[in-house]
Design goal:
Number of strands of chain B: 0
Helix content of chain A: over 70%
CATH architecture of chain B: Up-down Bundle
Shape of chain B: flat
CATH class of chain B: Mainly Alpha
Largest sheet of chain A: none
Distance between the termini of chain A: 97 Å
Structural class of chain B: mainly alpha
Radius of gyration of chain A: 24 Å
Shape of chain A: globular
Oligomer: heterodimer
Structural class of chain A: mainly alpha
Number of strands of chain A: 0
Number of helices of chain A: 14
Number of helices of chain B: 4
Order of helices and strands of chain B: HHHH
Number of domains of chain B: 1
Radius of gyration of chain B: 25 Å
């Protein structure tokens, strides 16, 4: 068999399959071994990406934005800092506080990593390079992502620490709440593509990325997924200035490290999901013939979204919990419902009227955004009036 | 079934990969526990009372609201998948379903269940 440089991934798979079949193994077993190999490579790649490269990049970026140098002692530009950190964490004494639920305490960081890695099973990196194209991919993403929320709740509640407990409470209020607009926003690409399979959703964006057809849903998904991952400014569950470190206050050593890695991985996972579901995934000129090029497009889009997340993260102060919940339940959730209705009606009206699909969608979305801004302005005006009236009342009260 | 085999392999592999560094730490890290070290961390102050304190009822109400809307979203996914094959009136029925739930949200809003007191 000659090696096909246009499509190296399929070729490697075929090569390995041929090799294993040549050893006289049963075809079913060979498929299983290849799948296991794929799972190992995927999980290993994700862990290395999050644990080594992203922690370094994130600290460097944060430092640059905050006018510091960041890690610069270990290796050139401090790139070996994560390895030094890993060695430190792994040689640290592992403390499980008394009164903790030991089994749940140990299981929580593992589940956190499992949920973040598990989502990558359905992310298409390039044409024909996908873990498995489940026909319920979108629901799978939501379901496996929810395990991450569960793991944080488990970690907080098993620690027998009041700060950790508060972190777990906040998880219930925040992460659970932000799942609603996220799931409802996911209805929009499902509706436009007519399938829940992530591969199918990418294929459906050939005519135009969904960010063009549904900008409001894109923004909704992006914001609520960011809250779902617990990134700043939505990092109430581990707000270090309020509740020390929230759910992971009692964690030390590699158990803490696993929570840390899971958080970073979750951050890049939502970047990858936004890129896949709304920015066209691996689609780009020439990607169909050269899957390697598709991988490059996918990486560029993911990196771009991740940079936006980082930028928001380093420039915004933490949101207060009542604002956070009001933002979700009074703005994002109704807006998500409205976005689904608008998309549903616009997509049926466009062919009936004979207009261009993209134009109809874009107009509908702009109208929706305009209505939202008007509602917000009216709301802000109401608050301003109340605030401006009150001090005057106080002044007259203080005169006598 | 074939599709799910990869997931069935990936999830345990991910769990193992997370468990591996923790197992290595267990082998090489020192272990000298004492009562002080194992006590609950509360910024240097000794803990008073039980960890399982009463919590605000709002958390409970928000969790309940979440359950309603999450189930709604799951009901809507089949509708969204079949969307392309549906006639306009079927789509409008789905919209009606969403509007009924939106009415539920408005009710909760007016009742003050969405306020964080």
């Amino acid at each position: 068999m000659d090696f096909n440089f246009q499509d190296p991934f399929t070729s490697i798979g075929e090569l390995l399959r041929g090799l294993l079949l040549g050893w006289g193994l049963a075809p079913g077993l060979v498929s299983l071994i290849l799948m296991l190999l794929g799972a190992l490579v995927l999980a290993g790649f994700a862990m290395t990406l999050a644990g080594v490269f992203l922690t370094w990049l994130d600290r460097k970026l944060a430092a640059r934005i905050q006018d510091r140098l960041g890690p610069n002692r270990v290796g050139p530009f401090g790139i070996f800092q994560p390895i030094a950190d890993a060695i430190k964490l792994i040689t640290k004494e592992d403390i499980i506080p008394e009164g903790a639920e030991r089994a749940i305490f140990k299981l929580a960081p593992m589940l956190a990593v499992m949920s973040a890695v598990g989502i990558w099973a359905v992310v298409p990196f390039a044409p024909r390079l996908i873990g498995t194209d489940l026909n319920v991919g979108v629901l799978y993403i939501v379901a496996v992502g929810a395990i991450g929320t569960l793991s944080i709740m488990m970690g907080g509640m098993a620690s027998n620490n009041k700060y950790a407990m508060l972190g777990a409470f906040r998880t219930v209020a925040q992460m659970v709440a932000y799942e609603i607009p996220m799931v409802i926003a996911l209805l929009v690409p499902t509706m436009l593509a007519g399938t829940m399979g992530v591969g199918g959703i990418v294929e459906a964006q050939r005519g135009g990325w969904f960010i063009v057809l549904a900008p409001v849903a894109t923004l909704l998904f992006f914001v609520s997924a960011m809250a779902e991952a617990g990134r700043a400014p939505f990092d109430l569950l581990e707000a270090e200035s309020e509740i020390v470190a929230g759910y992971n206050v009692e964690y030390s050593g590699m158990k803490f490290g696993m929570f840390y890695v899971a958080e970073f991985l979750h951050g890049v996972t939502i970047a990858a999901l936004t890129a896949t579901l709304f920015l066209g995934g691996w689609l780009g000129p020439g990607a169909q013939q050269f899957p390697l090029l598709g991988l490059v497009y996918f990486a560029i889009k993911t990196a771009f979204v991740y940079l936006v997340i980082s930028l928001i993260r380093f420039s915004m102060p933490r949101i207060r919990i009542d604002h956070l919940l009001a933002f979700n339940w009074k703005l994002l959730t109704p807006l998500a419902l409205a976005a689904v209705i608008v998309t549903a009606i616009a997509d049926k009206l466009a062919p009936a009227l004979g207009w261009n699909r993209a134009v109809v969608h874009l107009t509908a979305n702009i109208l929706l955004a305009w209505a939202t801004f008007e509602a917000l302005r009216a709301y802000a005006r109401g608050i301003r009036q109340r605030v401006e009236v009150q001090p005057a009342a106080v002044e007259t009260g203080g005169a006598d | 079934m074939e599709q799910w085999a990869f997931v069935a392999l990936l999830l345990p592999v991910a769990l193992m990969i997370a468990a591996l560094p923790m197992a290595i730490q267990r082998l090489i890290a020192p272990r000298k526990p004492n009562a002080m070290k194992l006590s609950t961390y509360e910024c240097g102050i000794e803990t008073v009372g039980d960890t399982w304190v009463q919590f605000k009822v709002q958390y409970y109400i928000f969790a309940l609201i979440f359950v309603i809307f999450d189930i709604e979203a799951v009901f809507l996914f089949p509708w969204a998948v079949a969307y392309g094959k549906l006639a306009l009136y079927m789509v409008l029925e789905g919209v009606m379903f969403i509007l009924i739930l939106a009415a539920g949200l408005v009710y909760l809003w007016r009742k003050g269940a969405l306020e964080w007191i």
